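[audit] Reproducing an earlier prediction to check determinism. Same input, same settings, fresh worker. If the tokens differ from the archived copy the diff job will pick it up downstream; this log only records the rerun itself.
[audit] input (209 residues):
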Amino acid sequence: MGIRGDSYERIIGSHIILIGAIVGFLSLIASIILYISADPTFSFMTHWISNLGIGPNGSSVLFNGAMIYAGIMIWLYSLFLARHLHKNGALKLLIIICFGCGMMLGIGLLLTGIFPMELVFGMHNIAAGLFFFGGMFSCMFYGITSYFTPNLSKLYAISGFLGVAIFIPYLIINFLPVYIGIIKLAEWAVFFVIPFWVMSQSFLMLRDK
């Protein structure tokens, strides 16, 4: 009964997180469409992600709301995944580190929605830093933890390491004399990593039911 109960809880939790990630992703796409409908010059190489937070045609409202929603969902996801790691025998210290990284990522998303670019620029920079480093460290440490947990498929780890492989080039090119459009494109790439990473973890949990 206990095993069946755990399996049922994992399936329900995975569906909730998966749906949450999909809703957040679709909200982001919708905000981009709203922005483009008012400003056709928009592209991933001409605009920063934060431009959506002060964008026209209601795109700012949708984007900022989606960021706040995503932050809350990441907190729930971190709690759920920490419990999943614990039940599969992961090291307690690694679980705590993973949970902390997830909290950092969630706070970054939440503050990004509350403090849009240019309105409160100092806080926005802090929020962006928490998002990028929280996202990279979440992918990294969840990947490491999954890799060293025998009861979990190595696909969990691969998913996390692929995310890190996109984050690291973005951090590096910020210190190189490259065309600004490349940096903007790389920023969008790492931004999209998070919903896909969360969805991949949820799919793997459902597969393991």
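[audit] rerun output stored. Observation attached for the diff report: The chain has a mean pLDDT of 87.
[audit] end
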